[in-house]
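Form 7-S
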Amino acid sequence: MDLPEVDGYLTKEGRNLHGNGYVFGDVGIFGCGASSPTPFHTPSEISETDIEQFLMNGYNMVNDAKWKIMVCHTPPKDTATDIIQNGMHVGSQTVRDFILKYKPHVCITGHIHESRAKDTIGNTVILNAGMARDGWYIEITIDKDSLTAGLKSVA
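Output:
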């Protein structure tokens, strides 16, 4: 959810996941760095249609990888990772539908800082580590036959 200048810099450096995918051995990582529209008019808000297109572009770059990791700023709707303080689910239906259709092994998400959680959609593990300042992070371990993913605390 960075400003356009950051997006341009990451693209120039070959490190931008927004609409891109990269394969490292058996692991493919792809993503979408923007969010669906919010009442707060935050930087990098895009339509649900654009979110789907960015995810599809990245997925197509990694679809032959054995293990697929999706990094999407906006969490999938109706999971433990998209709940705001008043209890409402505010995630993206498009992200949820994408996960149901393409079944990445892991979805790393954020956007809803107060919604640190681990959940699943089908066999896809959904992870939101919350705010970095709270000391949580995501750890994914992959060997040739298995993948495990979870939340960890530095404390």
